[in-house]
Amino acid sequence: MSLSMSQASIAVFNRQLNNLSVILGIAAAHAEEKKIDASVFLNARLAPDMFPLSRQVQIACDTAKGGAALLAGVDAPSHADDETSFAELQARVAKTLTFLASLNAAQIDGSEDRTVTLKRRDKETHFQGQAFLLEHVLPNLYFHLTTAYAILRHNGVNIGKRDFLGTR
């Protein structure tokens, strides 16, 4: 049995963003329980030149919705990058999941050979759909998810590999 583009993209995005939502919920509860201002976590970084937790979550969401939109040939919704609480980050994840749910498999399947153009500031990069998903979108998504996880774990939030992977 072959793996479709929608199974390799939307299904993965949904699972990982839902896992991120659980992790953010655990972090919010931890902050409340330990009487730690949530901004300590939201502004935490692994290194001075890396983005803080809030930006990692924003980019993870943008990567999933932008990747899905390009594969489906539709415009991605725009979300302001202004989240300042765990609840607002949770809402960002929820909006992204809602957008992903608006796409159907037929829009994504067959995109493996479609040319996808990624526009960044002053540069355009062209990919075939499958290479775009496997070599750009998924690695970027996992980078930002892993970094968000690592920031929280480094700051004492009791999360583990099972939280990152999610339960079946």
Characterization of the model:
It is a single chain. This protein has 168 residues and is mainly alpha-helical. It has one domain: dinb family like domain (Four Helix Bundle (Hemerythrin (Met), subunit A), Up-down Bundle), CATH 1.20.120.450. 63% of the residues lie in helices and 7% in strands. The protein has eight helices and two strands; from the N terminus they run ααααααββαα. It has helices at residues 5-8, 10-34, 38-42, 53-72, 86-102, 105-108, 129-154, 161-165, and strands at residues 115-120, 123-128. It has a two-stranded antiparallel ribbon with strand order 1-2. Strand 1 (115-120) and strand 2 (123-128) form a beta hairpin. The radius of gyration is 16 Å and the shape is globular.
